[in-house]
Amino acid sequence: MAFKFLIHRVSNQNSNQLNYSRWLEMAGIFLGIPLFLSRMSVPHVKITSLLAVCSVCLVLILRDKTFDRNRFGFNGFRAWYMLAIRFAVIVGCFSLYTIVVDPESPRALFQHNYMSWALLMILYPVFSVIPQEIIYRAFFFHRYGSLFKEKRVSWLVNTMLFAFGHILFKNWVAIIGSFVFSLIWATTYLQSRSILTVTIEHALYGDSAFILGVGYYFYSPDF
Q1: Among the four residues 1, 7, 152, 198, which has the most C-beta atoms within 10 Å?
Q2: What share of the chain is helix, strand, coil (3-state, %, to 5)?
Q3: In the predicted model, what is the mean pLDDT of the chain?
Q4: If we measure between CA atoms, which residue out of 121, 143, 218 comes closest to residue 179?
């Protein structure tokens, strides 16, 4: 009995130490790195850092045998009509915001430069959306989800950290907008268990924002 008690106590101590290290790790990645990068003005260091962090996170979840790789596909998700309805509402809100609140905003970041605009529509999902969803959805919920007793708490923390990561753009619209949209994307990921599904949704919203003229809040020339 004494031996079993000792094993149990050591196991609990190891578990607590692991939890502490995970909390510190999460703070470093999702608070420390964005805060550090927000103070830097070196061209392209932000996108380079995003891709580097994404690579590390991807390696970690792929090496973890408990991670379900089916999440990289649609994983049986079929509720596209719900995403379509939500997308239509969001695009309507984008349009209304542009007309009522910010009518002087450019309708595209690269007016009369259609090649640059087309490249943005392609490169943004590949080099920004995919890394963000791997880091903030797949990696975050798999690695840190067990730290929270309730899923809705992890959902809210994820949303807040995603919004904090957008301090790099140095405007409140990017931070508040990221918080609102992360509520949607985190919900989509938790319900669909599909990185591909939430990535498509994120990319559609992002490209629509650029098309309708509000994407400049989420754009930085030195990114």
Answers
A1: 198
A2: 80, 0, 20
A3: 87
A4: 218
